[in-house]
Amino acid sequence: MNRELREFRRLERVCLEQAALSTLDLARSGLLKVADDCRIAAEAIEAKSPRGALAGAVEALKLALSATRVSHRH
Predict the structure, then answer these.
(1) Backbone angles phi, psi at 9, to 5 degrees
(2) Nearest to 40 by CA among 10, 59, 61, 55
(3) Cα separation of 15 and 7, whole Å?
(4) SS (H, E, C) 3-70
(5) Full-model pTM
């Protein structure tokens, strides 16, 4: 596992843990969305063939963020 993949998975876990502890609906919702974006980015990294690890991680995160922005507009 590469470092970027581990970091996305770690961030996903932290966001999920903090969402579980949050008493504010808005904060919980935001944390869950970030956790989902991290999961999507990590899955994209896992699915891609090895190339520039940092470039792959950045591209995966961009794709994840753009996909969630488009789907939330409707």
Answers:
(1) -65, -40
(2) 61
(3) 12
(4) HHHHHHHHHHHHHHHHHHHCCCHHHHHHHHHHHHHHHHHHHHHHHCCCCCHHHHHHHHHHHHHHHHHH
(5) 0.63
pLDDT (tens digit per residue) in 9-58: 999 999 999 999 999 999 999 999 999 999 999 999 888 856 556 666 77
> Is residue 1 packed enough to be buried (19+ CB in 10 Å), middle (13-18) or exposed (0-12)?
exposed
Instruction: Report yes or no: 15 and 38 within 8 Å, Cβ to Cβ.
Output: yes
* Cα–Cα distance measured from residue 68 to residue 4, given in angstroms and rounded to the nearest whole number: 21
Instruction: Yes or no: say if 43 and 57 are a contact pair by the CB < 8 Å rule.
Output: no
